[in-house]
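ingest -> validate -> predict -> emit
validate: passed (alphabet ok, no gaps, 150 aa)
predict: started
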Amino acid sequence: MLYLSRNIFFYSKIKLQDTFETRVYLIFFHFSIILMIFKNKKINFSQQNYDDLFHCIENDLRELGFGDVSVNKKMKNMNKIFYDILLKINKSNDDFIINKDLILKYFEYLRESNFDKYDLFAEYFTKFYHFCFELNPKTMIKDAINFKVT
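emit:
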């Protein structure tokens, strides 16, 4: 997921700021889509993948110099943000339609730009959903990095 959050597309075409929070939010959007696909296919998702993701974020916060109390507070907030994204990302029961309000909540810049940047962002995640939906669930996380924006 980290690889996907570093996709130059987000920073050159959409002009998102390259910050820790932006990358974490992008990771959460990608990860939420993958979890949603597993749920739609009625396949259990390994708790270890979730644990590994949050362990990496925790380690990154420590490397940035945050202390124990700050890390714990930030991790609690990150968990809330992740579940907010996970539960609200899709606005449809039939197909994948990304929640515009959710995107604008975490990427306010897209609200300020003319909506062509938002449209590119939404199109990216819709294509990502369809790309991942076709992948083998056993290798989906590993194979998702092969997604390319066209």
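Residues 8 and 133 are 23 Å apart (CA to CA).
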